[in-house]
Amino acid sequence: MRQNIVAGNWKMNNTLEEGIKLAKEVSALLEANKPNCKVVLGTPFIHLAEAVKAVNTDLVGISAQDCADKESGAYTGETSAAMIKSTGAEYVILGHSERRTYYGETNAILKDKTDLALANGLTPIFCIGEVLEEREANKQNEVCKTQIEEALFHLSADEFSKIVIAYEPVWAIGTGKVATPEQAQEIHAYIRSVIADKYGAEVADNTSILYGGSCKPSNAKELFANPDVDGGLIGGASLNAEDFNGIISAF
Ligand code: PEP
After folding, report:
1. Fewest CB within a 10 Å sphere: which of 72, 73, 155, 249?
2. Is 96 part of the annotated catalytic residue set?
């Protein structure tokens, strides 16, 4: 059966000292009260190796927020999937809307990043989602389908079964606007049907599909109660250990 997952995305927040303090706080809260789901912390690159040492890795997995689309070499400023893996991190967030919007990441680039993440034994948390105009034009399904098809559907069923999908409506990220539980369930079920059409019902049933976008302790329970919502990718609320733990406790 698929795993329930709550993953934090710290984005470009926290100095090394602040980040390790937060990672330790999250880990301690989970040791005191064991989670009923997999918990992941998506930290900036510079925190990864220290964060792996700071947490109880039986309870918390560490994730990068991006990786290079090249294996290695003269790509100043980039961080490869192999480098991320070497820190002890297990996950990498790919295709976040901020990467797509501010850094021009296309589905073709994300296809290469996904291949490198998988080749290096990282689990991609692959983000998809529509912008507000697309939602208003009722195009959310086709947008998500295209993002998955173009970046992921070259994978074999075996490879695809290692992917975690995060549905993040861009209009809900960092805005305080959250998708209703009905909107989340509807599109998560649709995304699962797209996966089933390509890879069959078993792979689709085993794929974790997370919701992201202004998820908080106050709304997590009703979002996660939906049969096709297998947890969340959490931005703002993951920067506070109590709030993040409040979301984890929704399971
Ligand atoms: C995100 O950036 O992945 C996200 C879901 O952010 P927030 O929770 O702050 O909306």
Report:
1. 73
2. yes
**Rounded mean pLDDT, 161-180:** 95
**pLDDT given at position 2:** 96
d(CA 122, CA 85): 7
Q: Which domain holds residue 217?
A: 5-248
Number of structural domains found in the chain: 1
For ligand 1, whether the C-beta of 238 sits within 6 Å is no
Assess whether the C-beta atom of 173 lies below 6 angstroms from ligand 1: yes
- pLDDT for 65: 98
With a pLDDT cut of 90, the percent of the chain lying above it is: 99
Task: Residue 238: give its domain's CATH number.
Answer: 3.20.20.70
Cβ-based neighbours of 172, under 8 Å, separated by 6 or more = 178, 179, 212, 213, 214
> Ligand 1, closest atom to CA 96?
3
Does ligand 1 come within 6 angstroms of the Cβ of 29? no
Tell me the pLDDT band of 52, cut-offs 50, 70 and 90. very high
Q: List 123's β-bridge partners, or say none.
A: 91
